[in-house]
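To fix ideas, we quote verbatim a fold written out as tokens:
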Amino acid sequence: MLDFFYNIDWVDFARMAGLSLAVVAGQIIVYNLIIKLFKKRINPLIHNKGHNEFHAIKIRNYTLLTPAQFMHFGFLLSKLVMYALLLVSLYISVTLLFGIYPGTRGLALALFHGLLNPFLSILESFIAYIPKLLRIIVIVVITRYLIKLANFVMKEIEAGHLVIKGFYPDWAPATLHLVKILAYAFMVIMIFPLLPESETAVFRGVSVFLGVLLSLGSTSVISNSVAGIVLTYMRSFKLGDRVKVGDVIGDVVEKTPFAVRVQTNKKEIITVPNSTLLSSNVTNYSTEGKEKAGVIISMPVSVGYDVPWRHATELLIEAAKKTSEVLQDPSPFVLVRNLGNAASEVEIYVYTNKPERQAIIFSELNSNIRDLFEANNISMITPYFMQSVK
């Protein structure tokens, strides 16, 4: 036992003990500094930023991040970073302590390389990846400025400041979306081979799997999108137009890449897929009505044979002229459709530049016809107008 104490180099022992105490003291100081840094500096900064300077982040009408959520996320991130720094400092302190004593220096080297080697490996991989990263940055920047240029040109065309023969202003928004899709698709194709591990079998397998899912699940989506683009360039209708698609008659209130929403006279919103519109006959009542002399709308009327047909025709035209939203020029007119067994079937045609008020026009026209026929002693016997017996 005494030999053990005599063989100890007390100078080295004192030096190692002093270094150990210094490492422990240093660890305590670093621990306190990290705690104070986050509690006295960083956390109050996050609190002040959240209350005074941070505003809610919104995407259209959806609030993505409120000030309270920002502070909560900031405090959580601050806590994670603080714990990470404490663990790193403790790891370094333990490594230094093991390195002080000859018997544990091998373990210290293992701990040191366990911390250093992954970092060096990541650093070497990053340095080797820098040329590809620069190419990706160049591709992204070029794509971004091409889209900005396309956005500027299309805005000028839509506003009427730039006129290109054969290119209509209402084509501009759809063309801009198409340019963006093509630009981003080309960018992804260019960047994909430059991504890390893009040549591995796992990465290729995942990309093929996603491609198969997209192709199987998006057939109708793609067909509706393509149909929407085609409809835009066909210029079949625009927002606010009164249209008829199959049995649906109403005003176009919304156009999306996949469908069109039509509001009927009963304020019903009917969604019609773009593919259905492309494969159907679309009647547009508004194009001619708004841009030219007006659109013609008609209403059938049956007149009994005991009523002088010329007099009935004059009354029908007079009733039409008294109807609001009916144009006086061109004048309304009447055509004989059929000579039935009990009555002649005629049709009153009127011009209007408000085809979206078709139901109101017909209602007022019917009221005017009834008033004029009653004023001229022509009784209305369903379903025909007949001369009253005096």
Q: What stands out?
A: The chain has a mean pLDDT of 78.
